[in-house]
Specification:
mainly alpha
Length: 208
């Protein structure tokens, strides 16, 4: 999201030791990230801290400080991990043979992610973290490009309008995240979820 996302790319960068390699698949850091994700999903962001993660992962607190400076480092790593997971799921719709339109299949993935991983979803689109950390903005951008590829593959949308449609649908996702983060439990009320999904479903099914 280059020119249009100036608001995303402004702000001071957080002083973090974060590196892209934080989305590791093995070792102590992977155990710590798995524990952090579990705490986030089951107990919420307020209960997420270095000591709780160390206890859940069964590793020493000193090891935690080897990988993370503070709680914000953990949140950043979780946000990047979430975007990578969502990106993979979105790209998977391009290879799947299903009855939904490309946009419909991608939207189904997106809504399912928001519903089943609501705490992580809200964290990924946290405006303060996005403004402070280029790594999180880059992760969002990579996920947006996957979403954009799905929109471009939907032949129902005239080529002239595909980029605009991609941005509009992504803005809807950001709006959902903002509403979710403003709720006491970080989740959309059922009636609001139904309205959003119904409205988005109509727009997706009637792109012209």
């Amino acid at each position: 999201m280059s020119g249009e996302d100036g608001a995303l790319r402004s702000g001071d960068e957080g002083k973090s030791r974060y590196r892209y390699a934080s989305h590791e698949t093995h070792g102590l850091k992977a155990k710590a990230m798995s524990a952090a994700a579990h705490i986030l999903d089951t107990r919420g962001i307020e209960e997420l801290n270095l000591r709780a993660i160390a206890e859940k992962a069964g590793i020493g607190i000193a090891s935690m400080y080897h990988y993370f400076d503070n709680k914000e480092d953990i949140l950043l790593s979780l946000g990047v991990m979430g975007f990578e997971d969502l990106r993979r799921d979105i790209l998977g719709t391009l290879a799947d043979d299903n009855s939904l339109s490309p946009i419909g299949a991608s939207a189904a993935v997106f809504f399912r992610f928001a519903e089943t991983r609501s705490e992580l979803f809200s964290l990924m689109f946290n405006q303060r973290l996005l403004a402070r950390h280029e790594a999180l903005r880059d992760a969002e951008n990579r996920t947006f490009l996957a979403h954009e590829a799905v929109v471009y593959s939907d032949e129902r949308i005239p080529a002239l309008h595909r980029q605009g449609a991609a941005y509009a649908l992504w803005a809807l996702a950001r709006g959902m995240a903002a509403i979710m983060s403003s709720q006491p439990d970080g989740k959309l009320p059922p009636e609001l979820t139904e309205r959003l999904m119904s409205g988005a479903g109509y727009l997706i099914s009637h792109p012209d």
